[in-house]
Amino acid sequence: MNKKIALIGGTGPEGKGLAKRLAITGNQIFIGSRKQERGKEIAEELTNELNEYPQICIKGGDNREMAELSEIIIIVVPYSAHKNTLMQIENELEGKIVIDAVVPMEFQKGPRSIEVEAGSATEEAAQILENSTVIGAFHNLSAEILMDLKKDVIGDVLITGNNKEAKQEVSSLAEEIGSIRAVDAGPLRNSKHVENLTVLLIGINGRYKAHSSIIITDIN
Amino acid sequence: MNKKIALIGGTGPEGKGLAKRLAITGNQIFIGSRKQERGKEIAEELTNELNEYPQICIKGGDNREMAELSEIIIIVVPYSAHKNTLMQIENELEGKIVIDAVVPMEFQKGPRSIEVEAGSATEEAAQILENSTVIGAFHNLSAEILMDLKKDVIGDVLITGNNKEAKQEVSSLAEEIGSIRAVDAGPLRNSKHVENLTVLLIGINGRYKAHSSIIITDIN
Question: What residues of chain B lie within 8 A of the CB of A168, using their CB?
Answer without folding.
Answer: none
